[in-house]
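Re: your question from the hallway

Yes, I did run it. Sequences:
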Amino acid sequence: MAGSTKAERLSLGTIFIPLLGFGLVVLLWSIASHTVAHNLPSPSKTWETSRPYLVEPFAKRGELDQGILRFTWYSLILVAQGYAVALAMATPLGFLLGRSKLFAKGFDPIIQILRPVSPLAWLPLGLVLFEKSRPAALFTIAICSMWPTVLNTAMGVRAIPQDYLNVARVLQLSPGKTFFKVLLPATLPYMFTGFRLSLGIAWLVIVAVEMLTGSPGVGGFLWQEYNSLIYEHIILCILTIGIVGFVLDRLMSFAEAKLRAVV
Amino acid sequence: MPLLSLKAVSKGFGPKKGRTEVLHDINLTVEEGEFVAIVGYSGAGKSTLINLVAGLERADEGEVLLAGKPISGPGPDRGVVFQSYSLLPWLTTFENVLLAVDQLFPDLTPQARKDRAKAVLESVNLGHALNKRPSELSGGMRQRVSVAGALAMDPKILLLDEPFSALDALTRATLQDELERIWEKHRKTVLMITNDVDEAILLADRIIPLSAGPQATLGPAVEVALDRPRDRKAMNHDPRFRSVRNTVIEYLLGPGSRKARASKKDAPAAAPQVERVEVPA
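Structure:
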């Protein structure tokens, strides 16, 4: 009996109450669109206009008229590439910062200055440097999203207990073996926290990048529909971006938890 | 020639000004096959002493010699068992030991190295825990793996830095007995640091008290002439046991105590922290 009430309470807490929250927000949105914000499409109108994009999520009717998941897919590919570049740069940089005090002293101030710079500021520089929109987009995603990985990796390396390093020293492990057997496994949980935060930022940056470069994707679609005065699609895009970002974060958290259980 | 000798060794920490000397004028020799225990206060610099021998730290003054040669850094000829954390948590017990074996016996075939690692773990009764990670083992089992790992290196000297102090009393007693058994079998040279006088008496040939810090230094050595294998129950009634115990404790509470050592400076006396000090019956 106790088990069943617990299960009921669980479903109440995990399903019913969040649904109530969603319903409340949709209600407020509906009221707002009918009263104060006349340009805001109502929930029902948003649904109607978005339907073709949702029921045929992979349709391709034209270059700028495609199903929402198809657009999402384009965005995800761009993010994945930029993110890969970010990790490839950030991880070694993080290890250097964590291992070498001299390096940390020299580069930490620069990192602190570059870190808060908006993607909107990096993109023009990328366009100047690469003269094409795609590499510029990758550059922007990479340089904006790499910092959490850099800083978390460095923190993880600094947090390695001296005892683990002593094990390596007593056994006289080679630098390569010390790295793969001691440094890397000891830092991995921190690195993964960095990876998760970096992925969040990469996804955040994608919209701005696509808007400015006009490449096809959720962000590009959003901007184009704004220019075409189809405001319902702006909301569709916002919700899509939010849901995809949430799913990515959950996936990374899951991987992180799995990893922590091992280390 | 003694296997290990420390001559007028001093070691301090901190910047040049306001530097605290942790160890002062340490003189120690350990003969081949001897089991030496150093008993002292918590925080007196016992671990620093082990780290000097392990080569993890360098002496400021004096010299540390292993088989007549100065110690310049850490090396596998000195197997170290730390108080905790000597195992890498992301490796299984087998992989932890194998890491040492792989490193020290590169000439053996991979299969022979695996067999050796396995044999060492079986010798400390951990054959059933080969594929467990340290987090799945009790504290006592973890220290057994550490001892096994250190033994697998076949070192010239085994350095034990308070190996059992993080364990509960019963586990500690079991492991002490087991260590005695292992030592009887291998007769390795051992330098053990402990804060437990009884543990030292059970295991060591010679006990040297380390005075309270700062500027801790070694007191007069006490030979433990009890027959081996030693039985902890019978030992309690042996007058020689009591006499050794009293000598060590009297030094630690007397000339080696913080109070006595600080008396020149008129510093406030701190409570002695020797474990399980009781008046012998």
